Amino acid sequence: MKRSLVVIATAVLVAGCGGGGGESAPQESGGAPQKVTLEWWHLSTADPLKTLWAKRAKEFEAQNPHVTIKATVLENEAYKAKLTTITQSGKAPDIFASWGGGVLKQQIDAGLVKDISADVADVLPNFTPASLSAYQVDGKTYGLPTDIGLVGFWYNKKHFQQAGITEPPATWSAFLDAVKKLKAAGITPIALAGKEKWPGHYYWAYLALRIAGIEGLKQAETDHDFTKPDFIAAGRQVKALADLQPFQKGFLGAAYSTPDGQAALVSNGKAAMELMGQWAPVTQADAGKGLGDDLGFFPFPAVEGGKGSIDDAFGGGGGLAVGADAPKEAVDFVKFMTQMDKHSEAVESGGVLPVLKGEESAVKDANLKEVATQLASATGYQLYLDQAYPPAVGQQVNDSVAELFAGTKTPEEVGAAITEVAKSEG
Known about the structure:
By secondary structure, the protein is of the alpha+beta class. It is 43% helix and 14% strand. It is built from 17 helices and 13 strands. The strands form 5 sheets. Strands 1-2-3 form a 3-stranded mixed beta sheet, with helices on one face. Strands 4-12-7 form a 3-stranded antiparallel beta sheet, covered by helices on one side. Helix 16 (391-406) runs antiparallel to helix 17 (411-425). The two termini are 26 Å apart.
């Protein structure tokens, strides 16, 4: 994911996760800081970030000779599963990747995350409000952002031309027409990683955003009711899309970043588009041949008669949170990673988008500039539903939408299932 980094830090006296060296580094008998090992799990399995993050670890170690950083790189689903296991045991990594929102709040409520407000007060003014908002709860800061972006359609310009589509569709009805034209031209319209479920939830979530508006989604956070007409209408439009059979054969068993997965299908010219976040070009290039100048981007279309705007953005980014018992060095590393000179290099590489004020000029890629421009002009910002809501609710959204695509649940049953879990969690 989607969608960023962990560090399970252990001081010398701790084996495994959850322990730390306290607020300041213990001193050895000679007065030098006691050695600290930081185990860093992150999700950047592809370059440029995989290599760049390794470089950052070496730089930090050079500046802090008593610190050793051990990195473990995990893909999205494996990371989430491992983090869930750790936090359910009542422990937390000392530095860990977070998308913020409801998942982070649940970890905070469980006492697993450090309030770093005082530690980062000097750098908070450097961040854009949109990027920082997901990591602030009740006026306190529990992490710093490393990326922000939005989900939209990444498409093959040549395929669109072959199908007679002269411009990206700006309305949902025009989008459905584009799907029909692509099919008629013998082109698979959309690649979807049905096995992983989270890519599919984007469709229902975006349609809910366009139909119910941001206020409708925020209201659902409070009343836990997803059976209202706007949410059922979103489900019906997902079904209308699924009924066109727009996805590749076997999509229900397809992964996202594997050589035969969603990203590779678009990258290798075997599907015309995918609905994905700002990291899509990097993942496509890593999983397949890459489209080069034939790759384009357009926002999720507006829904006629909906309460939402095409300028309402849906997405998220990545950030670094700190475990409650983390040593001082863990916070130091988070600040190090988000210094302007360090972070701007990641922006220039195309790996992330600006989270610091004044970084916009570092965006070089034309498509990412388009994403950054849309973010800058967004009229509202909605975090991924599987992160904005508590984990169980987000998982139910993913599961129910997958069943909607598979034809085993109706739009009404989807709304009822999500509501049942939301009320039990609320």
